[in-house]
Design goal:
The protein is α/β, with parallel strands linked by helices and 333 residues long. 38% of the residues lie in helices and 18% in strands.
Amino acid sequence: MIHFNPFAELSTDHQKALSDICGALKQAQKIAISAHIRPDGDAIGSGLALLEMLNQMGKEVHFCNADKASFPLTGLPDYNTIENRQIYPEQFDLLILLEGATPCRCRQDGLENYFTINIDHHSSCKQDATLNWVDSAAAAVAELIYLLGKSLPIRFTPSIGFNLYAAIISDTGSFKYSNTTARTLFIAADLIKTCEFNPAAVSDLIFNSNPLEKVRMLQKVLATLQIHLEGQVATIYYLKSFMNTPTIEDFDSEDVVAVVRSIYGVNITLFYKEVEPQQYRVSIRSRGNANAQLIAAHFDGGGHQHAAGFNFQGTLEQAINSSLAIISEQCKK
């Protein structure tokens, strides 16, 4: 039998950060949780799991997000407990920020008035909270919430397991992405065994619950596909004019990116999403030695080696040409 200890993966600094956070949570009574803007499956699933853990400890907890999540994340257990509002000026003993330790990342005001705990797995995030635990080896922030839960006097319930598993499969593409590690798989297996939920039901919710409007949107986006730099780079884009009613906020764009990134020989995929006239959010996905984070950094963005993004102001043509110019320079180096 293979024995695996996920805590053994933690460095001394990470172990200390975990210990300090546990100590602060045990002393606090009224706690707020907030995640990054445009929350994804990892942010919502991790936040809901943490909310239940702290409730079990008898804490008064409020999960407050500036932005609402999109379907199907609204189908996660206890999603209706999330409050879409500002935290400040309400008094809290401490504020936990999941992947959103700065005002621009969480769109929460008055962070400087709180004892803050930053839990993240993006190496590019700022670590200026009161307590910081940033582990870029984690495939999802849910891995860190799992370890936190194992260090607290709580019971892992089916809903905690469901939410953490949903968070992990969201950020790993159901374990297909390169960020998947032995620790990721161990945690997923332990959640299934310990929490006794149906993993197929989680996957069905996250990956097989597309509304017809989304599929039609994906069809239009895929029709914009262009290949560049001798087949190494693919670009696609979304314009608000593609759909009459829904906006890009209503959709998780990972599905269309996953199709394009599967093209043989393509190492970098760029997805340009129009949010306002001449304003685009650009998602970058890469594989192999191609570094998405380095591309995003040129535009003051961030992320991971194989998943990053940035905002661009200008025309779509300018956005695409600027990105390709940076990538071309990197290829030369």
